[in-house]
């Protein structure tokens, strides 16, 4: 086969079937309800699956997204996440949902979801949101993509990129969000770096953030 023709075919196939387009595998059955009991179950994508013959409507149901979730200490915000760990029926379906509530000037600090892209819609309040991405000209630098959002506005945070949400208004704010993963994961940048167990060597953090060791110790004590 002509090399140019082969190249065109490979490029075309790559566009139609993009490699690595999703981290959650496509389901091989209608549902695979996650359970902790190994009896009459099979292991799929990190979870044991209930025998489909035993499935009920309750396996796909979870109340409570009308209320705020777990508060983030000292941040003035709370997050209510519904992923596969709370709703077994999400297993292998590649989706999860969340609700975030903010008091005035409340913050969801810079964090990433290593396995999921997040999209949010503002229900009430005014938020300053954004994410960081490598500069296409100088990969050693980053670009910030930020926006002020009002009720009805939508914003998307690409998978794996550091992002944040900050209530800049004097009233409470609420957003709903969705992620294209049943278990998107969460890495909060500051607490992961300064609150790891066991703690990172002080020299690493001191040089990385251009801080003296005393300040590093104070931050490690705060986040631990």
UniProtKB/TrEMBL annotation:
Residues 1-22 form the signal peptide. Its main location: secreted. Residues 63-217 form the Cupin type-1 domain. Oxalate binds at residues 113, 118. Mn(2+) binds at residues 111, 113, 118, 163. The keyword Cell inner membrane does not apply. This is Germin-like protein. The gene is LOC107806873.
């Amino acid at each position: 086969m002509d090399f140019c023709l082969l190249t065109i075919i490979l490029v075309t196939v790559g566009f139609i079937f993009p490699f690595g387009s999703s981290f959650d595998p496509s389901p091989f059955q209608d549902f695979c309800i996650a359970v902790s009991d190994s009896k009459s179950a099979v292991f799929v994508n990190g979870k044991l699956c209930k025998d489909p013959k035993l499935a009920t409507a309750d396996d796909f149901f979870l109340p409570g997204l009308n209320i705020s979730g777990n508060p983030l200490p000292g941040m003035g915000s709370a997050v209510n996440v519904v992923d596969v760990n709370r709703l077994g029926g999400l297993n292998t379906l590649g989706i999860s949902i969340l609700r975030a509530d903010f008091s005035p000037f409340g913050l969801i600090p810079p964090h990433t979801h290593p396995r999921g892209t997040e999209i949010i819609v503002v229900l009430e309040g005014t938020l300053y949101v954004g994410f960081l991405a490598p500069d296409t000209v100088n990969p050693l630098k980053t670009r910030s993509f930020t926006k002020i959002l009002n009720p009805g506005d939508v914003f998307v945070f690409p998978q794996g990129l550091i992002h944040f949400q900050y209530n800049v208004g004097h009233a409470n704010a609420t957003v709903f969000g969705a992620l294209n993963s049943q278990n998107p994961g969460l890495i909060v940048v500051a607490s992961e770096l300064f609150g790891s167990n066991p703690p990172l060597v002080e020299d690493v953090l001191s040089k990385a953030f251009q801080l003296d060791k005393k300040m590093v110790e104070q931050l490690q004590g705060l986040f631990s």
